[in-house]
Request: fold
Amino acid sequence: MPTPNIKREDLATNLLPPTWASHAISEVVISPKALHERVKELGNLITEDYRGRPPLLIGVLKGASSFMTDLSQSIHLTVEIDYMAVASYGTATKSSGIVRIVKDLDLDLTDRHVLVVEDIVDSGLTLSYLNRYLKTRKPASVEVCALLVKEGQQRAKLDLKYIGFTIPEGFVVGYGLDINEKFRNLDGIWRLKIGYESKI
Ligand code: IMP
Ligand code: MG
Reply:
């Protein structure tokens, strides 16, 4: 499956940040329109791949919340949905890979086809921890659908079945992704202003 690869020169320049966020974000990385279209495409792919064996979708809170809502509505199967919350130690913009489970799953994974719905894969350390953890629950299969993957950043080897977009290095917010809990409510994916991190 070809993954749209967002390069610097493809950045949409015609969209301005909303005024309430313009102190923190610079340019749009993925416009709301491109984002919503791609989420629909991913939903269609998953619908085809999982026909006859509806998946159990596991969202990783809080970042994947917007993506989970839209993606699940684009999957035309009787999916079930559960959430986990993890806290990963590190700074506001870098995870250390040491992950603590803050909210565990409610549903039993035994013999289920699990599809992990993740907002963004940076180093890959969080996801690789989760993968190992989920496999101990005896699912029939575990696959990953990541909305965003940062180019060239992965320190853990991962097998990602579905990828929304590959984006260049740099911190992004919006559509569920935050910096210190803010800007999750932006539609689209936006680049954080250089230096913003040091001002908070
Ligand atoms: P990883 O363990 O380095 O792959 O980081 C994964 C987690 O860090 C993601 O699930 C996000 O919650 C967070 N993260 C990584 N990069 C970004 C970003 O650019 N914006 C917002 N959150 C991010
Ligand atoms: Mg996350």
